[in-house]
Amino acid sequence: MKQNYLQKSIAAIWAIAFLLVAYSCSQIETFEPNMDSNDLAKDISKFKLTGPLVEPINWAMRGRPDGTPGQDKDPNGGNVECSELDMEYASSSGRNNYNDGEFENEWPEGLEVEVIDGEVCWIFTAPEGYCLASMAVIVKGGPAANVYEYTDGTSEDCGLVAPDNASGKPAGLSNLTFCWNLVAEPEAPELNEEVSSKCYGEEDGEVLSFDANDFVTVPDGVEIVWYDDETEGDVVEEPTLSEKGTSVTYWAEAVLFGGCVSSTRTPVTLELKDCDDGNGNGDDEIWCEQTGWTGSTAGPGNGWWFVFDTQGNETQPIYAGQKLTDGTMTYKDGKITIDLGETLRLQDVEDPVKAEGYDEETLPGSRPASGQFELYKGDELEFDGNGSRYYAVHLDVEVLTEGVCQINEDEDDD
Fold first, then answer.
1. Helix (H) or strand (E) holding 206
2. Helices and strands per DSSP (H, E), number in the chain
3. What is the pTM (predicted TM-score) of this model?
Protein backbone atom coordinates (compact mmCIF):
# COMPACT_ATOMS: atom_id res chain seq x y z
CA MET A 1 0.00 0.00 0.00
CA LYS A 2 2.86 2.31 0.92
CA GLN A 3 4.61 1.42 -2.36
CA ASN A 4 1.54 2.37 -4.40
CA TYR A 5 1.34 5.69 -2.61
CA LEU A 6 5.04 6.37 -3.25
CA GLN A 7 4.67 5.62 -6.97
CA LYS A 8 1.77 8.05 -7.24
CA SER A 9 3.78 10.77 -5.42
CA ILE A 10 6.74 10.34 -7.77
CA ALA A 11 4.48 10.53 -10.81
CA ALA A 12 2.94 13.73 -9.50
CA ILE A 13 6.37 15.30 -8.94
CA TRP A 14 7.44 14.46 -12.51
CA ALA A 15 4.19 15.92 -13.86
CA ILE A 16 4.82 19.18 -12.00
CA ALA A 17 8.44 19.30 -13.24
CA PHE A 18 7.33 18.75 -16.83
CA LEU A 19 4.85 21.60 -16.58
CA LEU A 20 7.54 23.92 -15.18
CA VAL A 21 9.96 23.07 -17.99
CA ALA A 22 7.29 23.56 -20.66
CA TYR A 23 6.32 26.91 -19.18
CA SER A 24 9.94 28.06 -19.06
CA CYS A 25 10.52 27.09 -22.69
CA SER A 26 7.43 28.94 -23.83
CA GLN A 27 8.60 32.05 -21.99
CA ILE A 28 12.03 31.90 -23.66
CA GLU A 29 10.55 31.50 -27.12
CA THR A 30 8.22 34.49 -26.78
CA PHE A 31 10.71 36.85 -25.02
CA GLU A 32 11.32 40.04 -27.03
CA PRO A 33 14.20 42.27 -25.84
CA ASN A 34 13.45 45.96 -25.47
CA MET A 35 16.11 47.14 -28.02
CA ASP A 36 15.87 49.48 -30.99
CA SER A 37 16.84 47.51 -34.10
CA ASN A 38 18.76 50.59 -35.35
CA ASP A 39 21.27 50.00 -32.55
CA LEU A 40 22.32 46.82 -34.32
CA ALA A 41 22.26 48.17 -37.87
CA LYS A 42 25.19 49.79 -39.63
CA ASP A 43 24.90 53.42 -40.65
CA ILE A 44 24.80 52.90 -44.39
CA SER A 45 22.72 55.95 -45.26
CA LYS A 46 25.86 57.94 -46.08
CA PHE A 47 26.91 55.51 -48.81
CA LYS A 48 25.63 55.45 -52.39
CA LEU A 49 24.82 51.76 -52.71
CA THR A 50 25.72 51.54 -56.37
CA GLY A 51 28.93 50.76 -58.17
CA PRO A 52 31.67 49.97 -58.48
CA LEU A 53 32.54 52.97 -60.63
CA VAL A 54 35.66 51.37 -62.14
CA GLU A 55 36.51 47.89 -63.37
CA PRO A 56 38.81 46.01 -60.99
CA ILE A 57 42.11 44.45 -61.98
CA ASN A 58 42.67 40.90 -60.75
CA TRP A 59 46.30 41.41 -59.80
CA ALA A 60 47.30 37.76 -60.26
CA MET A 61 45.78 37.65 -63.77
CA ARG A 62 46.61 41.12 -65.05
CA GLY A 63 48.04 41.27 -68.53
CA ARG A 64 46.62 37.88 -69.54
CA PRO A 65 43.67 38.54 -71.85
CA ASP A 66 42.86 34.82 -72.12
CA GLY A 67 42.01 34.79 -68.41
CA THR A 68 44.70 32.31 -67.40
CA PRO A 69 46.76 33.12 -64.32
CA GLY A 70 49.94 35.16 -64.67
CA GLN A 71 53.26 33.58 -63.66
CA ASP A 72 53.14 30.38 -61.65
CA LYS A 73 51.68 31.99 -58.53
CA ASP A 74 51.19 35.39 -57.03
CA PRO A 75 54.30 35.59 -54.81
CA ASN A 76 52.41 37.58 -52.16
CA GLY A 77 49.40 35.30 -52.06
CA GLY A 78 47.25 38.20 -53.22
CA ASN A 79 48.55 40.60 -50.57
CA VAL A 80 49.38 43.42 -52.95
CA GLU A 81 51.32 46.42 -51.64
CA CYS A 82 50.74 50.04 -52.67
CA SER A 83 54.36 50.18 -53.85
CA GLU A 84 53.65 47.43 -56.40
CA LEU A 85 50.96 49.40 -58.24
CA ASP A 86 51.70 51.19 -61.50
CA MET A 87 51.02 54.64 -60.01
CA GLU A 88 53.05 55.97 -57.10
CA TYR A 89 51.03 56.78 -53.99
CA ALA A 90 52.20 59.06 -51.21
CA SER A 91 49.83 57.77 -48.48
CA SER A 92 48.50 54.39 -47.42
CA SER A 93 46.17 53.00 -44.79
CA GLY A 94 48.31 49.87 -44.49
CA ARG A 95 46.82 46.41 -44.76
CA ASN A 96 43.80 46.06 -42.49
CA ASN A 97 42.67 42.49 -41.76
CA TYR A 98 38.96 41.67 -41.65
CA ASN A 99 37.84 39.00 -39.17
CA ASP A 100 34.40 38.12 -37.84
CA GLY A 101 32.84 41.16 -39.43
CA GLU A 102 35.29 43.63 -37.92
CA PHE A 103 38.46 45.34 -39.13
CA GLU A 104 41.55 44.82 -37.02
CA ASN A 105 42.65 48.48 -37.04
CA GLU A 106 41.05 51.92 -37.10
CA TRP A 107 41.01 53.67 -40.47
CA PRO A 108 42.98 56.91 -40.96
CA GLU A 109 41.17 60.19 -40.36
CA GLY A 110 38.92 61.11 -43.26
CA LEU A 111 38.44 57.52 -44.47
CA GLU A 112 35.12 55.78 -43.74
CA VAL A 113 34.67 52.11 -44.66
CA GLU A 114 31.78 49.65 -44.32
CA VAL A 115 31.28 46.11 -45.56
CA ILE A 116 27.64 45.78 -46.62
CA ASP A 117 26.38 42.36 -47.71
CA GLY A 118 29.96 41.31 -48.39
CA GLU A 119 30.73 44.37 -50.55
CA VAL A 120 33.11 47.18 -49.60
CA CYS A 121 31.87 50.79 -49.51
CA TRP A 122 34.17 53.75 -48.83
CA ILE A 123 34.15 57.54 -48.54
CA PHE A 124 37.24 59.76 -48.30
CA THR A 125 37.13 63.35 -47.02
CA ALA A 126 40.33 65.23 -47.81
CA PRO A 127 41.91 67.53 -45.18
CA GLU A 128 41.06 71.23 -45.35
CA GLY A 129 42.82 72.92 -48.24
CA TYR A 130 43.34 69.67 -50.17
CA CYS A 131 41.49 67.44 -52.60
CA LEU A 132 41.78 63.73 -53.36
CA ALA A 133 43.73 63.34 -56.59
CA SER A 134 43.84 59.54 -56.93
CA MET A 135 42.88 56.48 -54.93
CA ALA A 136 43.57 52.73 -55.17
CA VAL A 137 41.68 50.12 -53.14
CA ILE A 138 43.18 46.63 -52.80
CA VAL A 139 40.48 44.10 -51.93
CA LYS A 140 42.05 40.77 -50.87
CA GLY A 141 40.05 37.56 -50.57
CA GLY A 142 41.10 33.95 -51.06
CA PRO A 143 44.42 33.64 -52.90
CA ALA A 144 44.09 36.85 -54.95
CA ALA A 145 43.20 40.53 -54.84
CA ASN A 146 41.18 42.95 -56.94
CA VAL A 147 42.68 46.42 -57.36
CA TYR A 148 40.31 49.33 -57.99
CA GLU A 149 42.09 52.48 -59.16
CA TYR A 150 40.46 55.94 -59.36
CA THR A 151 42.50 58.60 -61.16
CA ASP A 152 39.91 61.34 -61.60
CA GLY A 153 39.46 62.54 -58.03
CA THR A 154 36.59 60.15 -57.20
CA SER A 155 36.12 60.28 -53.42
CA GLU A 156 33.60 57.48 -52.81
CA ASP A 157 32.41 54.17 -54.22
CA CYS A 158 30.54 51.03 -53.25
CA GLY A 159 30.26 47.41 -54.41
CA LEU A 160 33.96 46.47 -54.27
CA VAL A 161 34.65 42.74 -53.93
CA ALA A 162 37.53 40.26 -53.97
CA PRO A 163 38.15 38.10 -57.09
CA ASP A 164 35.85 35.15 -57.73
CA ASN A 165 36.81 31.85 -56.14
CA ALA A 166 36.31 28.36 -57.56
CA SER A 167 32.53 28.60 -57.04
CA GLY A 168 32.35 31.56 -59.41
CA LYS A 169 31.38 33.95 -56.63
CA PRO A 170 33.54 36.59 -54.94
CA ALA A 171 35.77 35.21 -52.21
CA GLY A 172 35.19 36.41 -48.69
CA LEU A 173 37.08 39.56 -47.70
CA SER A 174 40.43 38.89 -46.02
CA ASN A 175 41.94 42.34 -45.82
CA LEU A 176 41.70 45.80 -47.33
CA THR A 177 44.31 48.43 -48.28
CA PHE A 178 43.83 52.02 -49.42
CA CYS A 179 46.51 54.02 -51.28
CA TRP A 180 46.01 57.69 -52.20
CA ASN A 181 47.46 61.01 -53.33
CA LEU A 182 46.32 64.48 -52.31
CA VAL A 183 46.59 67.75 -54.20
CA ALA A 184 46.31 71.27 -52.81
CA GLU A 185 43.08 72.96 -53.85
CA PRO A 186 43.70 75.68 -56.46
CA GLU A 187 43.90 79.36 -55.64
CA ALA A 188 41.07 81.51 -56.93
CA PRO A 189 41.76 82.97 -60.40
CA GLU A 190 44.07 85.97 -60.26
CA LEU A 191 42.70 89.31 -61.42
CA ASN A 192 44.93 90.96 -64.02
CA GLU A 193 46.71 93.93 -62.48
CA GLU A 194 46.86 96.02 -65.63
CA VAL A 195 43.25 96.07 -66.83
CA SER A 196 40.17 94.56 -65.22
CA SER A 197 37.30 96.64 -66.59
CA LYS A 198 36.71 98.37 -69.89
CA CYS A 199 34.56 101.23 -71.06
CA TYR A 200 33.61 101.60 -74.70
CA GLY A 201 31.52 103.86 -76.85
CA GLU A 202 30.48 103.12 -80.38
CA GLU A 203 32.97 102.33 -83.10
CA ASP A 204 31.73 102.52 -86.66
CA GLY A 205 28.17 102.28 -85.38
CA GLU A 206 28.84 99.01 -83.48
CA VAL A 207 29.00 98.67 -79.70
CA LEU A 208 32.12 96.74 -78.74
CA SER A 209 31.83 93.80 -76.33
CA PHE A 210 34.28 92.10 -74.05
CA ASP A 211 34.77 88.85 -72.16
CA ALA A 212 35.50 88.39 -68.44
CA ASN A 213 37.98 85.62 -69.33
CA ASP A 214 40.33 88.33 -70.58
CA PHE A 215 40.79 89.70 -67.08
CA VAL A 216 41.75 86.65 -64.99
CA THR A 217 44.56 84.11 -65.18
CA VAL A 218 45.07 80.60 -63.74
CA PRO A 219 48.05 78.21 -63.82
CA ASP A 220 48.37 75.54 -66.51
CA GLY A 221 46.08 72.59 -65.88
CA VAL A 222 43.48 74.68 -64.06
CA GLU A 223 40.16 75.60 -65.63
CA ILE A 224 37.83 78.51 -64.90
CA VAL A 225 34.11 78.10 -64.24
CA TRP A 226 32.04 81.28 -64.10
CA TYR A 227 29.06 81.90 -61.81
CA ASP A 228 26.54 84.68 -61.30
CA ASP A 229 26.98 84.63 -57.52
CA GLU A 230 29.86 84.81 -55.05
CA THR A 231 29.16 81.50 -53.28
CA GLU A 232 26.34 79.63 -55.02
CA GLY A 233 24.42 80.73 -58.11
CA ASP A 234 24.26 79.30 -61.62
CA VAL A 235 27.05 78.52 -64.04
CA VAL A 236 27.57 81.17 -66.72
CA GLU A 237 28.73 79.65 -70.00
CA GLU A 238 29.60 82.96 -71.68
CA PRO A 239 30.64 85.69 -69.20
CA THR A 240 30.41 88.56 -71.68
CA LEU A 241 28.82 91.99 -71.98
CA SER A 242 27.87 93.78 -75.19
CA GLU A 243 25.00 96.14 -74.30
CA LYS A 244 26.09 99.74 -73.99
CA GLY A 245 25.16 101.49 -70.77
CA THR A 246 25.02 98.29 -68.68
CA SER A 247 27.28 96.46 -66.23
CA VAL A 248 27.47 92.95 -64.77
CA THR A 249 29.61 91.08 -62.25
CA TYR A 250 30.71 87.49 -62.84
CA TRP A 251 32.52 85.25 -60.35
CA ALA A 252 35.43 83.05 -61.46
CA GLU A 253 36.13 79.72 -59.73
CA ALA A 254 39.32 77.71 -60.33
CA VAL A 255 38.76 73.99 -60.99
CA LEU A 256 41.20 71.09 -61.04
CA PHE A 257 40.39 67.65 -62.43
CA GLY A 258 37.77 65.70 -60.53
CA GLY A 259 36.01 68.83 -59.31
CA CYS A 260 38.67 70.14 -56.92
CA VAL A 261 37.72 73.82 -56.70
CA SER A 262 39.07 76.97 -55.11
CA SER A 263 37.53 77.89 -51.78
CA THR A 264 36.76 81.41 -53.02
CA ARG A 265 35.76 83.03 -56.30
CA THR A 266 37.19 86.10 -58.01
CA PRO A 267 34.72 88.85 -59.03
CA VAL A 268 35.08 90.59 -62.39
CA THR A 269 32.82 93.53 -63.13
CA LEU A 270 32.25 94.41 -66.77
CA GLU A 271 30.86 97.82 -67.65
CA LEU A 272 30.07 99.36 -71.02
CA LYS A 273 29.52 103.07 -70.46
CA ASP A 274 27.98 105.30 -73.05
CA CYS A 275 30.72 107.80 -73.81
CA ASP A 276 28.16 110.56 -74.22
CA ASP A 277 26.01 109.84 -71.16
CA GLY A 278 27.79 112.27 -68.85
CA ASN A 279 30.71 110.01 -67.99
CA GLY A 280 32.98 111.56 -70.60
CA ASN A 281 33.60 114.80 -72.41
CA GLY A 282 33.81 113.57 -75.97
CA ASP A 283 33.58 110.54 -78.21
CA ASP A 284 36.96 109.21 -77.07
CA GLU A 285 37.45 110.79 -73.64
CA ILE A 286 36.25 109.00 -70.54
CA TRP A 287 36.63 109.86 -66.86
CA CYS A 288 37.46 106.80 -64.77
CA GLU A 289 37.23 106.66 -60.98
CA GLN A 290 40.53 106.07 -59.19
CA THR A 291 42.24 106.50 -55.84
CA GLY A 292 44.98 109.13 -55.69
CA TRP A 293 47.88 109.88 -53.31
CA THR A 294 50.19 112.89 -53.26
CA GLY A 295 53.95 112.85 -52.74
CA SER A 296 57.13 111.26 -54.09
CA THR A 297 57.80 108.82 -51.24
CA ALA A 298 56.21 105.34 -51.36
CA GLY A 299 54.48 104.51 -48.10
CA PRO A 300 55.46 101.35 -46.16
CA GLY A 301 53.46 98.12 -46.13
CA ASN A 302 51.98 95.91 -48.85
CA GLY A 303 49.29 98.23 -50.20
CA TRP A 304 50.37 101.03 -52.54
CA TRP A 305 50.28 104.62 -51.27
CA PHE A 306 52.49 107.72 -51.19
CA VAL A 307 53.41 110.37 -48.64
CA PHE A 308 54.63 113.94 -49.07
CA ASP A 309 58.00 114.41 -47.32
CA THR A 310 58.43 118.11 -46.52
CA GLN A 311 62.20 117.66 -46.50
CA GLY A 312 62.00 116.89 -50.21
CA ASN A 313 60.91 119.08 -53.10
CA GLU A 314 58.44 121.85 -52.46
CA THR A 315 56.17 120.51 -55.21
CA GLN A 316 55.61 116.76 -55.66
CA PRO A 317 53.39 114.64 -57.97
CA ILE A 318 50.01 112.98 -57.59
CA TYR A 319 49.61 109.25 -58.34
CA ALA A 320 46.19 107.86 -59.30
CA GLY A 321 45.53 104.17 -59.87
CA GLN A 322 49.25 103.61 -59.14
CA LYS A 323 50.15 105.77 -62.16
CA LEU A 324 51.87 109.14 -62.33
CA THR A 325 49.58 112.00 -63.39
CA ASP A 326 50.07 115.68 -64.27
CA GLY A 327 48.59 116.71 -60.92
CA THR A 328 50.80 118.08 -58.13
CA MET A 329 50.80 119.05 -54.45
CA THR A 330 52.80 121.98 -53.08
CA TYR A 331 53.72 122.56 -49.43
CA LYS A 332 54.84 126.13 -48.73
CA ASP A 333 54.68 128.37 -45.66
CA GLY A 334 52.70 125.70 -43.80
CA LYS A 335 49.98 125.56 -46.44
CA ILE A 336 49.02 122.57 -48.65
CA THR A 337 47.94 123.37 -52.21
CA ILE A 338 46.68 120.71 -54.66
CA ASP A 339 46.69 121.22 -58.42
CA LEU A 340 44.68 118.53 -60.27
CA GLY A 341 46.19 119.44 -63.65
CA GLU A 342 44.38 118.66 -66.90
CA THR A 343 43.67 114.96 -66.36
CA LEU A 344 42.23 114.81 -62.83
CA ARG A 345 39.03 115.99 -61.20
CA LEU A 346 37.45 115.21 -57.83
CA GLN A 347 34.75 112.59 -57.60
CA ASP A 348 31.28 113.72 -56.57
CA VAL A 349 31.49 112.01 -53.18
CA GLU A 350 31.61 113.10 -49.55
CA ASP A 351 35.08 114.32 -48.49
CA PRO A 352 37.03 113.48 -51.65
CA VAL A 353 40.12 115.07 -50.04
CA LYS A 354 41.48 113.60 -46.81
CA ALA A 355 44.78 114.45 -45.12
CA GLU A 356 46.81 113.54 -42.04
CA GLY A 357 50.20 114.70 -40.77
CA TYR A 358 52.87 112.46 -39.24
CA ASP A 359 56.20 112.86 -37.55
CA GLU A 360 58.98 110.52 -38.64
CA GLU A 361 58.44 108.30 -35.61
CA THR A 362 54.65 108.08 -36.07
CA LEU A 363 54.42 107.29 -39.81
CA PRO A 364 52.06 104.27 -39.99
CA GLY A 365 53.46 100.91 -41.12
CA SER A 366 50.70 100.47 -43.70
CA ARG A 367 48.23 102.51 -45.73
CA PRO A 368 45.94 104.49 -43.38
CA ALA A 369 42.23 103.74 -43.46
CA SER A 370 39.62 106.39 -44.17
CA GLY A 371 38.73 106.90 -40.52
CA GLN A 372 42.34 107.71 -39.58
CA PHE A 373 42.46 111.09 -41.37
CA GLU A 374 41.89 113.91 -38.89
CA LEU A 375 43.93 116.87 -40.19
CA TYR A 376 41.49 117.64 -43.01
CA LYS A 377 38.37 116.16 -44.68
CA GLY A 378 36.44 118.00 -47.40
CA ASP A 379 36.54 119.10 -51.01
CA GLU A 380 38.91 122.09 -50.82
CA LEU A 381 42.22 121.97 -52.69
CA GLU A 382 44.02 124.33 -50.28
CA PHE A 383 44.23 124.00 -46.49
CA ASP A 384 46.68 124.43 -43.61
CA GLY A 385 49.19 121.82 -42.52
CA ASN A 386 50.15 121.23 -38.89
CA GLY A 387 53.94 121.37 -39.00
CA SER A 388 54.42 117.64 -39.55
CA ARG A 389 57.30 116.25 -41.56
CA TYR A 390 55.10 113.84 -43.57
CA TYR A 391 51.64 114.39 -45.05
CA ALA A 392 49.42 111.56 -46.32
CA VAL A 393 46.84 113.10 -48.67
CA HIS A 394 44.22 110.71 -50.06
CA LEU A 395 42.18 111.80 -53.10
CA ASP A 396 39.01 110.32 -54.63
CA VAL A 397 39.49 111.41 -58.24
CA GLU A 398 38.41 110.74 -61.79
CA VAL A 399 41.13 110.33 -64.40
CA LEU A 400 40.71 111.40 -68.00
CA THR A 401 41.56 108.50 -70.29
CA GLU A 402 40.81 107.09 -73.71
CA GLY A 403 38.70 103.97 -74.08
CA VAL A 404 39.87 101.86 -71.13
CA CYS A 405 39.27 102.18 -67.39
CA GLN A 406 41.54 100.32 -65.04
CA ILE A 407 39.56 98.98 -62.11
CA ASN A 408 40.12 100.87 -58.88
CA GLU A 409 42.24 98.84 -56.45
CA ASP A 410 40.43 97.79 -53.28
CA GLU A 411 41.70 99.65 -50.24
CA ASP A 412 41.22 99.16 -46.53
CA ASP A 413 39.34 102.40 -46.09
CA ASP A 414 36.74 101.13 -43.65
1. strand 206-207
2. 1, 32
3. 0.52
